[in-house]
Amino acid sequence: MIKNKIIDEIQKRNCGISLEKFIDICLFDGEGYYETSNPLGKSGDFITSPEISQLFGEILGLYIYCLWRDKYKEKFNLIELGPGNGTLLIDILRITKTLVNFHNFLNIHLIEKNKYLINKQKQNLRLNRFENINLKWHDDFINIECRPSIIFANEFFDCLPIRQFIKKNNNWYEKIVNFNQKTKIFFYQHLLVSNEKILKKLPANKIEIC
């Protein structure tokens, strides 16, 4: 259970966990939100532009083609972060499939962790007759061959785990998540940052919170 895992992490540290760690467990743990469900569509929690209109992907596809034609004209990596149901990629492939053998220059890489969505992407690619295109799935960037790359994403970065800092009275604090054993409620705290490496990375011109 996600709640118990978060509580265990908090108890290990005795001072709460970073917002980054909290988000990471909630979304990407083995039982996390993006690991175990399909959040897209009418039966999910939200819908994205490619699911509403193919025009979104077609415009992006023509832009990618023009960028390749003007700058590369060689094999390149086309990398999508968080491809969802595969709808955006399919719209891109559909609008570009007749453009001077463009698809022969594609090395497509999809960064996806959700096994349900990977199966959904494969199914939709097959239904749209793109199952034989040069395409691979990855958890991260490590095994992607180094070559010219075009990377695109839609509503991906808003789900990335982040750390959050505030400056107050000339001191930096990090927002952390803690757990009250008596009330059984999670709550935020601001922990004074003392790590010199972190302090050097924090800009000196942030607005102070009073």
Q: How would you characterize this protein structure?
A:
The relative contact order is 0.16. The model has no long low-confidence stretch (mean pLDDT 88). Helix 5 (55-71) crosses helix 6. With 210 residues, the chain is an alpha/beta fold. Strands 1, 6, 7 and 8 form a 4-stranded antiparallel β-sheet that branches. Strands 4-3-2-5 form a 4-stranded parallel β-sheet, with no helix packed on it. 36% of the residues lie in helices and 21% in strands. The two termini are 38 Å apart. It has helices at residues 2-13, 19-28, 33-36, 49-52, 55-71, 87-96, 115-127, 196-201; strands at residues 17-18, 76-81, 106-111, 135-138, 149-153, 165-168, 171-180, 185-192. It folds into 2 domains: 2-35 and 161-201, no CATH class; 49-154, 3-Layer(aba) Sandwich (Rossmann fold), CATH 3.40.50.
